[in-house]
């Protein structure tokens, strides 16, 4: 398939942040840096390399400054930091983040659990961050968490989601992520919300963030892609999950997503064998198996030798 550039599916890697934040085993700073550097070589244009939150809240990522200052930056790659407030934004910018990602839930209950504040307080804080960021060469993205459902409140009013997107844009935040924080989305719902979101901002400014909690992650990617979305978060090995969302499991798996795209002829520009090799090293790093499938099974083109008994026959 000779796809045009506008047909390319952009995979944005979040394992160093969203993937590691929930891990109970401490991953050494040098290993985090090596992970980011390995991903930088794979063809990604955007890598979420860490976060600048309270170390008491997310101790697994307390070395954000050291990671950002230690990575080997690659031309053409945007290194992103998640920040919860103005102090986090100041730390991220000082450490050299190219982009800062802000997060607010569409659900008031989840926002209080995740951010320890109301949605209104989060939005007020975003205004302070936008004003500060305007003085620095950094881009902005804001995420609408629980876009497709909340584990506490259930389904979220789609009008509310779109109002939040419009509010982000009015604040001067040009890029938006719609996040399925606990894997509650379905493809019909995804098509409908993506279509409405793309009436407010271009495809190059919209990211979809799916979790595979109920096994629908890649199905939802295809639904969003068919509706016009082109940018998707994913985590190497299928790592991740929100620490403040009951039942949350990993993000959609990067190598599984790239394999899907390769199989159906959608260009990603990502080196799949490189990703598979990296994913196969994760269990030794983390001390447990990871959810990804392709790293275990191999690609369809990775054939096996004919059994000796058949050769003899």
TrEMBL record:
Residues 9-276 form the Pyruvate carboxyltransferase domain. One of its GO terms (biological process) is ketone body biosynthetic process. InterPro entries: Aldolase_TIM, HMGL, PYR_CT. GO terms for molecular function: hydroxymethylglutaryl-CoA lyase activity; metal ion binding. The keyword Metal-binding applies. CDD domains: DRE_TIM_HMGL. It comes from the Bacteria. Keywords: Lyase, Metal-binding. It holds the Pfam family HMGL-like. PANTHER family: HYDROXYMETHYLGLUTARYL-COA LYASE. Belongs to the HMG-CoA lyase family. This is Hydroxymethylglutaryl-CoA lyase.
């Amino acid at each position: 398939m000779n796809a045009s550039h506008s047909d390319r599916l952009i995979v944005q890697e979040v394992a160093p942040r969203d993937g590691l934040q929930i891990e109970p085993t401490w991953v050494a700073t040098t290993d985090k840096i090596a992970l980011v550097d390995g991903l930088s070589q794979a063809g990604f244009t955007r890598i979420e390399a860490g976060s600048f939150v309270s170390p008491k809240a997310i101790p697994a990522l307390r070395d954000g400054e050291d990671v950002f200052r230690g990575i080997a930056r690659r031309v053409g790659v945007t290194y992103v930091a998640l920040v919860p407030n103005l102090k986090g934004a100041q730390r991220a910018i000082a450490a050299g983040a190219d982009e800062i990602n802000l997060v607010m839930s569409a659900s008031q209950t989840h926002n209080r659990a995740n951010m320890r504040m109301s949605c209104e307080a989060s939005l007020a804080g975003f205004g302070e961050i936008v004003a500060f960021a305007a003085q620095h060469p950094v881009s902005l993205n804001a995420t609408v968490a629980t876009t497709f459902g909340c584990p506490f409140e259930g389904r979220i009013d789609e009008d509310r989601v779109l109002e939040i997107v419009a509010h982000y844009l009015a604040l001067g935040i040009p890029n938006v992520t719609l996040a399925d924080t606990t894997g509650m989305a379905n493809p019909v719902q995804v098509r409908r919300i993506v279509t409405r979101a793309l009436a407010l901002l271009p495809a190059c400014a919209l990211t979809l963030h799916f979790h595979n909690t109920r096994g629908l992650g890649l199905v939802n990617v295809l639904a969003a892609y068919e509706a016009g979305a082109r940018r998707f978060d994913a985590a190497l090995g299928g790592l991740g999950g929100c620490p403040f969302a009951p039942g949350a499991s990993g993000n959609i798996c990067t190598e599984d997503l790239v394999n899907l795209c390769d199989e159906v002829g959608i260009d990603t520009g990502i080196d799949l064998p490189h990703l598979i090799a990296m994913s196969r090293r994760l269990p030794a790093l983390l001390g447990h198996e990871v959810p990804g499938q392709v790293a275990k099974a191999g690609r369809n083109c990775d054939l096996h030798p004919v059994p000796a008994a058949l050769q003899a026959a």
